[in-house]
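FYI - complex with NA7, inputs then prediction.
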Amino acid sequence: PASEKANDYDVVVIGAGIAGIYQAYRLREMGLRFRVLEAGSGVGGTWYWNRYPGARFDSESYSYAYSFSQELLAEWNWTEHFAAQPETLSYLNYVTDKFELRSDMQFNSRVKSAHYNESDCKWIVTIEDGSAFSCRFLITALGPLSAPTMPNYEGLGEFTGESYQASLWPKEPVSFAGKRVAVIGTGSSGVQLIQEISKTAKQLTVFQRTPNWCVPLRNAPITKEEMESLRAGYPEMFERCQASPGCFIHAPDPRLTMEVPTDEREAFWEKQYNAPGFGLWMGNFRDAFISEEANAVLSDFVARKIRQRVKNPAVAEKLIPKNHGFGTRRVPLETNYYEVYNQPNVRLIDVNDSPIKRVTANGLMTSSEEFEFDMIVYATGFDALTGSFDRIDIRGENGVPLKKAWEHGPETFLGIFVAGFPNFMMIAGPHMALGNAPRGIEYGSEWISGLLRFAAQKNITRIAAPFEAMQSWTEYVRGLGTELLATKIDSWMTGVNKNVAGKTQRCVIRYNGPATEYRKKCDEVAKANYQQLDLS
Ligand code: NA7
């Protein structure tokens, strides 16, 4: 029927965030018929959803932007070194409009299911309102941190005040002024929110389970002259990002921590601590996150900073992580975060001492106290990387659910394919090198586009990863980074989320090697005319 024809595309992309927008640009360039399906009412993905007060980049804005268009680089001016969410969202809207991509996007269209049909090698994608789309190729651009999670507290629905999940923040302004506010969670989102809420709330109570090692962001406005000089440096900056392991502008120092004399080491860390951005994390000595000894000395340096900044020694000790070293989990960047705890309106509750027992109509009850709040903010994180896939009923050959194929942790080929799921490709999914996300996304999307161009030239209608290829890639990825202290602790980076059933065991969910190596491996597959794939 005509209606079915109208919904038939060469490619369907799920998600209109940084990855979906860029993939749309490439598909347009190739002249393919495609549709981008997006759950939100606009583009932006992470930067659409995470509109909570205080949300901003922790990477230098310019290093986090697209690099593919000289025109775009010439036109767009960033106003701050670490742009706030509204500016980033404007940027992504600007890109979408500049390249006229919106007409091929469909909003308020959350994908419910995607089923592979063996008889015609096509996918049938269904969205929540029941409309269906068929496509030859299905590309997921779901975002690595896009499935928010909530604690499983009893009485969650009983609270009568305002309550918000950080990444499901409403579009309408939310005022904290004069209110008694609770924040649960002290990851990057919690830290950004706490800084903001503490400015106007009557009382702010922070519920912390695991403290994180936070270091100063040191944000500043970008003047006109500075913007021009940054622009002139773009080629060199992008080259630097491409050459560094995590695609950040900071690269590790080749020295070994304990080989550097104490004074010199301290001076180096002092300099990094006082510099903007991720320097202390991404630009540290090369063994800082591998050697227990080196990491302990570094952690002690940061602990001393926290003790200097927080007046009450007991509170300072609570804010210093005891069970993981600096840089072994995502380092939140902050602006006066620690000083917030010197304010009389702010209180820190360690839920390890007094666990939250339940949510009540008026607030929260811990094992030792009943709290009344006007607002509860959940900054409780995401079901990372695989969570957004789990939320869609994805079925490959023989109706096998992706969730079943990944029940022992994700298995992929190049972080792009899953055996048994032909014509299905992932950008920024598990096992793809990400780091500074847009850098990884541009590469992944370009790689996929190269393959689609090849398929078009050769009249290929079925692209599949053999099981052996997936097994050997998965084994390779699982063997990477075993020396990293980060892989030895629980965090979203090791696939652990205590709020999600079945995600309490660590698994290799990320590509833990250097991005340079990842690209080399993927380039080799492309150069060999994709022989490792089954193409027909
Ligand atoms: P994160 O970094 O996963 O942080 C979530 C926080 O919420 C973390 O402190 C958790 O403690 C806490 N949490 C989660 N569930 C609970 C319950 N049930 N009780 C108490 N505390 C809880 O998410 P973010 O959104 O802050 O940041 C995500 C990424 O976005 C970040 O890495 C950046 O790349 C940008 P836990 O540590 O699990 O003990």
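Residues 145, 151, 166, 184-190, 207, 209-210, 330, 351, 379-382, 492, 499 surround NA7 (CB under 6 Å). Residues 437-457 form the longest helix (21 residues).
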